[in-house]
């Protein structure tokens, strides 16, 4: 899914620079790499379809705690620009938006303004009464500093230090915490300090010629996470209709988005195919 999204983001970036996508190096530093990471070679990464993958030399690692590092071609998105681009495209191609809070995906079949609905895609992030779903709180800090790469450091204690440049004068996200089931909406100043210090220690050039961060704001968000991974599944509903579930993407909603969309399109095609889905289920 990540590879599909990588290819699609490349195509959009080339055709629509206003969509807010920037291609830049991804850099990863690992203090305690798992066996899977350790087994990663340049040949294997190429075989997997990764572009520009290269293992970092020991002298390129930020400190002796980092045991493995690599770089590869990646992309970053300015979500404000990208979401407004998608919304404009959706409207231009005939999509209509109706804002309604529903208690269950099946409720959508009954909304009069929508006419005769055949298929509902449940891309609600957290799903509906799915006991495998939980939120993962994340505190990050938006800074005005620019950065020439998207850098992620996984520490041995399980914590992370990362940056995601938004580009287009959108600043750079410095993160971040991962706190399952924590609903606290308030950012902590102490956490902000620690995130900024830890990231600057790993990638000092972010501080620029002034040698400091320019903080724009603290951000607290909730990643829609699901035990066992996301749900991508078609559910037949009485009357030959169906709900396609596509939620629970955790902290990778953008990274996997076009792969998920492809999965949804495949399930939709199955539903519409003669002898499958719609026709078979109309006997229900
Ligand atoms: C701190 C943090 C860092 C992140 N970093 C990254 C990253 O580096 N890379 C990445 O790819 N992703 C990242 N994400 C994750 C990304 O934001 C999510 O994965 C993504 O937003 C999920 O997209 P989604 O469309 O599935 O769900 P959402 O964005 O949650 O959208 C769900 C939609 O469904 C609607 N909805 C929900 N319930 C109902 C209801 N009952 N009735 C009507 N409408 C409803 C909501 O209003 C919303 O519009 C991060 C998130 C956080 C919080």
Automatic annotation (TrEMBL):
Q: Which InterPro entries does UniProt cross-reference here?
A: D-amino_acid_oxidase_CS, DAO, FAD-dep_OxRdtase
Query: Would you kindly state one Gene Ontology biological process term found in this protein's UniProt entry?
Result: D-amino acid catabolic process
Record has Oxidoreductase as a keyword = yes
GO cellular component annotations of the record: cytoplasm
Q: Does the keyword Flavoprotein apply?
A: yes
Q: Could you identify this protein by its name?
A: FAD dependent oxidoreductase domain-containing protein
Q: Which Pfam families match?
A: DAO
Organism, scientific name:
Neoarthrinium moseri
- Residues of the FAD dependent oxidoreductase domain: 37-265
Record GO terms (molecular function): D-amino-acid oxidase activity; FAD binding
Question: Sorted alphabetically, which keywords does the UniProt record give?
Answer: FAD, Flavoprotein, Oxidoreductase
Say which family it is in.
Answer: Belongs to the DAMOX/DASOX family.
Could you say which cofactors this protein requires? Answer: FAD
């Amino acid at each position: 899914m990540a590879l599909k999204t990588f290819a699609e983001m490349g195509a959009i970036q080339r055709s629509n620079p206003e969509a807010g996508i920037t291609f830049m190096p991804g850099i990863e530093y690992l203090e305690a790499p798992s066996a899977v990471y350790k087994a990663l070679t340049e040949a294997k990464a190429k075989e997997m379809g990764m572009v520009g993958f290269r293992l970092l030399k020991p002298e390129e690692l930020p400190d002796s705690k980092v045991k493995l590092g690599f770089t590869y071609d990646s992309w970053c998105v300015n979500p404000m620009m990208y979401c407004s681009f998608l919304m404009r495209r959706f409207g231009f191609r005939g999509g209509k938006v109706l804002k309604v809070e529903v208690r269950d995906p099946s409720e959508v079949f009954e909304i009069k303004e929508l006419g005769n609905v055949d298929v509902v895609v449940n891309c609600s992030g957290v799903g509906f009464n799915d006991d495998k779903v939980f939120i993962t709180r994340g505190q990050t800090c938006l800074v005005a500093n620019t950065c020439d790469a998207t850098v992620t450091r996984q520490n041995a204690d399980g914590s992370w230090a990362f940056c995601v440049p938004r580009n287009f004068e959108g600043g750079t996200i410095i993160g971040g915490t991962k706190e399952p089931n924590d609903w606290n909406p308030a950012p902590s100043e102490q956490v902000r300090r620690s995130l900024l210090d830890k990231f600057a220690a790993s990638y000092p050039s972010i501080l620029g010629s002034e040698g400091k961060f320019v903080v724009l704001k603290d951000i607290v968000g909730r990643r829609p996470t699901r035990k066992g991974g996301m749900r991508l599944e078609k559910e037949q509903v009485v009357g030959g209709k169906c709900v396609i579930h596509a939620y629970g993407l955790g902290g990778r909603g953008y990274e996997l988005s076009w792969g998920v969309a492809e999965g949804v399109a495949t399930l939709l095609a199955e539903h519409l195919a003669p002898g499958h889905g719609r026709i078979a289920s109309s006997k229900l």
